[in-house]
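Worked example (supplementary).
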Amino acid sequence: MDDSRLKALRSLMAENGIDLYYVPSADDHETEYVVDHFEARRFLTGFTGDAGVAVVTKDRAGLWTDGRFFIQAEEQLKGSGFSLYAMGQEGVPTVEEFMAAELPQGGVIGFDGKVVNTRDGRAFERIAAAKGGALKTDRDLADVIWTDRPPLASSPVFALEEKYCGENTASKLSRIRAKMREAGTGWHLVSSLEEIAWILNVRGNDIPSVPVIYSFLLIGEDRADWFVDEHCVSDGIRKTLTAAGVSLRPYDAVYEAVSCLPAGSSVLLDTGKVNYRLTGLLPESVTICDADDPAILMKAVKNNTEIANIREAHICDGIAVARFMHWLKTNIGKIPMTELSVSDYLESLRAAQPGFVEISFTTISAYQANAAMMHYAPTPENNAELKPEGFLLVDSGGHYLTGSTDITRTFVLGPITAQQKRDFTLVVKGNLNLANQKFLYGCTGLNLDILCRSSLWNLGIDYQCGTGHGVGYLLCVHEGPNGFRWKDRRGANCVLEAGMVTTDEPGVYIGGEYGIRIENELLCKKAEKNFYGQFLEFENITYAPIDLDAIDPSLLSDADLKQLNDYHARVYETLAPRMEEDERVWLREYTRPLER
Amino acid sequence: MDDSRLKALRSLMAENGIDLYYVPSADDHETEYVVDHFEARRFLTGFTGDAGVAVVTKDRAGLWTDGRFFIQAEEQLKGSGFSLYAMGQEGVPTVEEFMAAELPQGGVIGFDGKVVNTRDGRAFERIAAAKGGALKTDRDLADVIWTDRPPLASSPVFALEEKYCGENTASKLSRIRAKMREAGTGWHLVSSLEEIAWILNVRGNDIPSVPVIYSFLLIGEDRADWFVDEHCVSDGIRKTLTAAGVSLRPYDAVYEAVSCLPAGSSVLLDTGKVNYRLTGLLPESVTICDADDPAILMKAVKNNTEIANIREAHICDGIAVARFMHWLKTNIGKIPMTELSVSDYLESLRAAQPGFVEISFTTISAYQANAAMMHYAPTPENNAELKPEGFLLVDSGGHYLTGSTDITRTFVLGPITAQQKRDFTLVVKGNLNLANQKFLYGCTGLNLDILCRSSLWNLGIDYQCGTGHGVGYLLCVHEGPNGFRWKDRRGANCVLEAGMVTTDEPGVYIGGEYGIRIENELLCKKAEKNFYGQFLEFENITYAPIDLDAIDPSLLSDADLKQLNDYHARVYETLAPRMEEDERVWLREYTRPLER
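After joint prediction of all chains, the assembly is encoded as:
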């Protein structure tokens, strides 16, 4: 790419009196998945990786990204006028350090206030203030240059009936208002698309694999306003929402609405989520109560209807995955297969299941060394051919009306080494040890994570990421606040509650050689309550064989083997009645009890 | 006890214009172990339990204590005029709630500002302020009534030579001053007796089993003042300290010293430790930098000299315990034994070891059901006779010039039940699983605790306390900040560092039946550093047989059995060369490898 875009941006900066311009990879809602419309950073720099931030001054232009993307960024930035700032490398300043150093005395920092959250915006305020400077945040300069910018999607909204969602909007609003009263606030501004979809029991198609709708929700004590493209909402949905006290207003009207909040009122919002433009419009006398959206925790604790549905979704999904495994292991080496072709085949099997909506994320179909890259996904340009040897890792899932799934299996396609077998066996051991642990109420993911890592750490191996994350119900497959992690980060301290669903996905990743991951979803449930307190346990709700061809039983204790055999017995009992006779014969073989 | 003391206190309160008087169980330094001199609460109420707080108003007098002491308190408070406020029971107000409710409008809260820490004192300020009232904290009213109050001990100070402590005072002060500079403070007031003893490499005998000296230490940028009873300090020690820039001043002079700190200066101190009287004397213009004493973390990370010494202390201690076990198991049922008599015998075996100073805490020698009470210690009035059946739990330790030990063994004296054997075996399994876990740098006790609890929790059993605590070097056996706990409390988040020593003491406590605990000390050490990061591991530094008579090998995996057999092999190799021939024969039998 040439540097014409950078030049155009600099000329706009000069016109607007801006000394330093900041362009993140984010939308107006801090959504995890950023659609093309919001990829201004990609447009300006030419760098197509998922994570990155661009900062431009009169003389310098930098692109910050992390280790996953260094090589790609170096390549793609050529000629663009942007230099790579390799995050975390010695001597490389952080974005904030760069801004503080490069902003001239009395200078102006510019950015589009809609795509920067309030917390970051305030940090930039402080950087400017330290130089006696100011911010200019009311214009998206990239938009001026970006003449062929893809439009923002506005897909039809569909309602999630109560048989799927289990709780109506009036009830959800009433629970949220109770939390507002506890916090002493009369208003709550919800900017996160997943929380809005959950509260209003609606879904859309604005983002691939994340069935949400671009919108804002402003909840008052006795009213609520949904700021959304009204053309996408049917009369039926409008009527249902009206009955719950929710009025529809145009998407952009939220900016005027917040500026008209009553003087002296208090509004609950998460400054890490709500964009800087919005909070900047709040009247002086309105105070912000900065806290997580109450809906986050409510959404994470699935209700009984959702739980019953999710169980069904996982059985359907398990049939697709088991069928895929049968096909894969039967045909490998006999018919041509690539990472993409098998991934497409798996999608077709899911699509045949009742209630299927779409795949819940881009399938990771990774052969041999490709699987060592945790976030690898094949493309037509980079699509390995599968051979009857080694491992194929497939991390995939489906959105169903009955919930979302996220499952990883690593399949043996042919001969594997003793080390591969050992690593696979220890990953399975960790996965099952966590799934079978009973624990006292009050535990967080910090307490339990080591159950997955114990055997690997004893060999000096780590998988360098969390062990698991919460899963949405026909929403984002990565959902907080629950998770299994050993490092204390935001959210890691969430107490596990009955009704939460969390993935259990240890792995081993040997760069340039192979990758192994086994991922099931665990439903947290109440176990006995006794003298010591309330115990909780997990129900393993993912049903698909774990490839016995890679298990070395001599590395498992009797207790480990029982856990594996019990799991496989449940997989067989659950799936077999819904499968064909030849599949059942195969399934029985691949769920057979192992002995030492 | 009659209510004459309460009446006398109320009359003093009236004279001094005090509406509500507060008496905690604490000394001027917030030391864990409170000596008789400071037991004003015990003097006033007649209640002799370790934990309790008294609050007196014109019409009411309450004693707050926790569940361990309800029965004892009910009994001992009879006639004293004090009522029991059973903490944690439904409908029972907390001390603060009681104070807020009972303080009259414009009323005065009184307490001895020396025995209340600054944080609590400030909370009481707020309670008084809410009522338009005030505090009066300059008089210890109990002292007026308590005519036969035991004097404060002033025992001779002894120096810990560098061959024992491994780092001189000048070096320690220099490290602390670096932390003071980081915090931007020119002064640091140390009130905790253990930190002072560590910094100055001195020990005393002011508190039984906690070899510290009542004193304060005020550290400046280029001077330090030790406020102490100077008569207890020899010329030699004084000279050593002077060389390190430490001057001696009278104990009480600290109060004037803080009032003379330079205007505008900043002082690092822990408001949860430093008493309210002291901080109240700071000049208005002096700011407090409220933080943990830097010495706490430095003290927890043992240096190489200390580590070498501690290893030796544990071998000596292990010989005493193994000898005790041999004697106990050989003679039970043949000679009379009580909880106290065997505890005295064990002390005599420790006393015969080189470098022995004193026992490191009151021995818990608890037979059968007594062992279910975690903090039980026998007294002449309550001293069970041992019979050749069931379990005897002995939790004991020694202070040596080479360090302090804390070890628990549960011994089989005769027939035990299958359930007892199961519980014992699972406690041992947990103990060894934790001790043998390798882990990445960054882990805290929160991450590792479940390794001890896993098998017990799976049976719905918990031991209702932390798994382990740090251990001082010839200091308090309970030392922070390291520990193994599953609940996130102050200190539980301490990252484990190489050089820290932490106990590993899971247990099972069945009320009215039996108690089991196995406690070893684990030294944290660096293991390999590789692509994944710095791994750490533990060295089990406690050497004494774990009673094989209570192990059911069928409940252990091959890996568990290997851990047990490896441990016992090390115990034999380490202790046998220093023991007598008949002891060696016995030791070999009780450290033999088990098979399934």
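Two points are worth noting when inspecting this output. Chain A has a mean pLDDT of 96. The interface with chain B takes residues 436-440, 442-444, 446-451, 454, 457-458, 460-462, 464, 486-488, 493, 527-528, 530, 532-533, 535, 557-559 of chain A (CB under 8 Å).
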